[in-house]
Amino acid sequence: MRRAILKSAAALAMSAAFGANAFAANPVEISFYYPVAVGGAVTKTIDGMVADFEKANPDIKVKAVYAGTYQESIVKALTAFKSGTPPTLAVLLSTDLFTLIDENAIVSIDSLASSADDKKWIDGFYKGFMENSQTGGKTWGIPFQRSTIVMYYNKNLFKEAGLNPDKAPASWAEMVDAAKKLTKRDASGNVSQWGVKIPSTGFGYWMFQAMAASNDTILMNSAGTKTYFDKPGSVQALQHWVDLTTKDKVMPAGSIEWGTTPKDFLEQKAAMVWTTTGNLTNIRTNATFPFGVAMLPGIKHPGSPTGGGNFYVFNKTSPEQQAAALKFIRFAAEPARAAQWSIATGYVAPRQDAWDTPEMKKYLQEVPAADVAREQMKYGVAELSTHDNQRVTKALNDNLQAALSGTKTPEAALKEAQRESDRILRSYGR
User: Fold this and answer.
1) Which of 102, 243, 277, 292 lies most in the core, judged by the most C-beta atoms within 10 Å?
2) What is the pTM of this model?
């Protein structure tokens, strides 16, 4: 009898071991599309996160695919989805929310994270970031690399111009006044140093939204079915932007490239620049001069839209893959890891518990500028996001560029953008 029991126990142990080995030999495989779209080497950090996750979860294999810019990433993700081979998980713009829902490309996070603990975890993200992650009573995305726009300024150039290097302009009038003192021209009128550069390509709508928000004007409704591009507050904000080149002559006319703006700042071709807080680590690493980071100067008060990317889990993937994707999302959002990501990239850690970690507290003592974006969240608004968002955003971007290049007045440009937006969104408002 004893021999039979031992034999049975040995068989069970062998069976369990075989099962475990078979399980480890056949892990759940998930693909993860990640956009490389900001300054600085972030792929190494992502690779490290994936390696740590796989070590902690040997039953899951993650294939990271670096998909290019945000725009390229959503095209690749939707193309793969329509062909029946979607990524399991992707980091895409928070503003892609309605497009992904309309394509039935993603599953709601609530359908995967339904326990009381899951709900408490979702509630732990900053409300400002969740505005671009939830709609219709459901959570569709989880904030990951989120940001706001901030102003970087060269303290040496401020000092040379007789400005206080420890006090950034807080209003548009103060920024214009400082920019005039910071713009350098030779005897022929050629500019070697611009007072300020606000990029207008790629994310022109984002910069404009900050100006409108500081003028108490919101550009869209929360359902993503209506826009308010041509409100008086919007027109006034765009006029301010145009005036920087035509009236104040402190910024170059025409297009200012999103991608080269940080480089122009680092090369001291611009004394002040507006760009994402996601460029903080890049600028810290490469600046050869002391610089400051400040909230954006506003018309009535500070203001900035949130920005950046969310995690999304795709449809047409297996329940096992979706569960594994949620596990990876929760892993990435753990306080110490979210703090590490923020420190490595400059993005705003999207949860308070990340800011409460010893690592983040130490970092803020060394780099207090990293806290500017979080402080600015008090004045934050949801980034422009609507149904058929890419077409609506393009209509606005094209008309902003027309105003900045002088081919349309701000009022005419925004009326045209509104007409085109109304046409695109007509069917969604019914």
Assistant:
1) 277
2) 0.83
